[in-house]
Amino acid sequence: MPQRTPCKVSIILPVYNGARFIARAIESVLKQNFAQWELIVVDDGSDDETPEIAGSFAKRDARVRYLRNPENLGIQRTLNRGLCEARGRYVARLDDDDVWLDGGKLGSQADFLDSHPDHVLVGTGAIVADEQGRELFRFMGLLTDEKIRNTLLRKNCFTHSTVMFRRDAVLAVGGYSEDARTRHVEDYDLWLRLGTRGLLANLPLFAIQSTLRSGNISWRNKPEQLKKDIELVKRYRGSYPRSRSALVFAWVRYALYRLLPFFPFRKIALKLYKTY
User: Fold this and answer.
1) Alpha carbon distance 114, 2 (integer Å)
2) Among 43, 66, 139, 260, which has the minimal tally of Cβ within 10 Å of its Cβ?
3) Where is the Glycosyltransferase 2-like domain (predicted)?
């Protein structure tokens, strides 16, 4: 069993009934070239084979820690438990149905934050695939703080499983909000709060594969997310530029998505999702 190395990056992986994909996600962490990490798997009360699968990795590698909530607490409280358990200077995120493709992802992001002390968060691009792993499209966020800051109210510029951020900065802004108003947009809300404390960036790497499936949280709750995006624009409009156009865009996006079920062709629906 690999021994625990000095921990620089804590990886938080929340999971609920993720037996179908979680082994693939954990394996992608084990393939990272950067070794100074710990993986904190926080099980939010799964009743499938998730405990056995995650527990087997923890037995094989001391850097993998498996924690189980006593009851289903929801994604926001589960993420904050991971933050409280984290020992690294930096924190990375991974969802149970996503995969890190680039073996240099953690090392590149840690090096970036080491050399850019004014930055509090750095993400990467993402390849979006279906449940069979077939690529649907690619998403590359804006790279520089100036461009991100000018756009962040209009859209979330970061895919959750790509990010690495400074743990002390996130704790300073209160961690993930557990307010019902930010449920399903807790990541976006956190980026907006972090941007008031430091600079934001993306690296020009397609470092992850994100799975788009009809049963995951993001897909099921997209209308609710888009409506809450409108409230986020209102809440943070004093902290970021172009708030008026961002509010108009948010309402138009929400209206278009509500019409999505009436589009009979999957290609049209996918085009709208990709545009968002």
Assistant:
1) 26
2) 260
3) 10-170
- Cβ(178)–Cβ(153) below 8 Å: no
SS3 assignment, position 170: helix
The total number of structural domains in the chain stands at: 1
The answer to whether 200 touches 145, Cβ cutoff 8 Å, is yes
Tell me the three state secondary structure of residue 233. Answer: helix
| CATH code, domain with 93 | 3.90.550.10
187 within a domain of the structure (yes/no) = yes
In a domain, 241, yes or no: no
Pick left, alpha or beta for residue 113 (phi over 0 → left; psi -120 to 50 → alpha; otherwise beta). Answer: alpha
Q: What are phi and psi of 23, to 5 degrees?
A: -60, -40
Which residues contact residue 146 at a Cβ distance below 8 angstroms, ignoring those fewer than 6 apart? none
Using one digit for the tens of pLDDT, what is the confidence trace for 168-211? Answer: 999 999 999 999 999 889 999 999 999 999 999 999 999 999 88
| Helix 222-236 / helix 186-194 crossing angle, nearest 10 deg | 20
Q: What is the pTM (predicted TM-score) of this model?
A: 0.88
For residue range 72-87, what is the model confidence (pLDDT) as tens digits? 999 999 999 999 999 9
Alpha-carbon distance 81 to 75, whole Å? 10
- DSSP H or E run through 268: helix 266-275
Residue 178, φ and ψ in degrees, nearest 5: -100, 10
CB 134 within 8 A of CB 212: no
So what's the pLDDT on residue 217? 44
Look up the domain containing 15 and give its range: 9-213
